[in-house]
């Protein structure tokens, strides 16, 4: 019987390397899948036979369209495997069609749909894979797909709102910076030449404006390069674990950003935990999986500590209350949901409330930033006008004498 050398990932994430005997490659894949292993590399007699991760630039953008297309076919009664095969032939988008073809290859090697999806972690996160596996095991794949689609659609809608809310402030900032640079680099040098030809002592406001213009013309490029280098170094530091923890803590203390980050985390936590609980994931496992979706390090640590207390027997509402990031009204709603056995619906209601609140916060933030930038631009233009007019009047007065 042929022997296959393999590299695989265990459920906990550890990489193992060993050999397995099987009549064929397909049988070897099935044996390893039955052991709970995610195959990364499989070799027969030292020659590479199959690599679980094939080439292809797949990203998380393919996740929601794939789930929607799969749900459309499975809802009509088609088996999931046959639906994936059909999608690999009928879809128009090249990237999505290639992804379905790769998934069909994995299915043909004996993997279940969830394990085939696990081969592409850049597209499908652990929560999605676990929920699909639960749907396959319980025969509720259609319901799982519907809830996942709703979950990811809500997240996509929230990101769209964020982008729309920030587009106008960004446009205003660009216009304001452009106006300021136009005055400093093009208008002021010409006015300075005119005022110098007239002679006389310039007022303080004009001298400040002229000095700023001369400084930026002489050293503006160096300042810009220094800012770019500084921003790059700061970004590299933030990408480190130590820098990420420090900057996340700073952001949480900012007046507007801190409240927004907290509300975003509460929304994501409530929505993700609701999806997991609705699909039969145990409370302990759902809390751990939800905790890993939180990107903010300070908030993730607080939620991790809350999860530890829940595993020790404390109620979820009490444990989350100790973090200091959940309002009393939210905790009361969670407590009612726990006592009535309707925790998932309570979490859904909380997520819906926070989605509306985040929309209001984004609109308020957009208004504040836009107004602040416009005020700064108008103030700077008014200062320039005052500096020019005062210089003209002072030079004219000197001619009279």
Main attributes of the structure:
Receptor-associated Protein, 3 domains, 401 residues, Ubiquitin-like (UB roll), alpha+beta
3D structure, described in words:
The chain is built from 15 helices and 4 strands. About 2% of the residues have low confidence. It has a 4-stranded antiparallel beta sheet, with helices on one face. Helix 2 packs antiparallel against helix 7 and helix 11 packs antiparallel against helix 12. It folds into 3 domains: 49 residues, Ubiquitin-like (UB roll), CATH 3.10.20; 93 residues, Type II secretion system (T2SS), domain F (Receptor-associated Protein, Up-down Bundle); 239 residues, Up-down Bundle (Receptor-associated Protein), CATH 1.20.81. Strand 1 and strand 2 form a beta hairpin. The protein is of the alpha+beta class and 401 residues long.
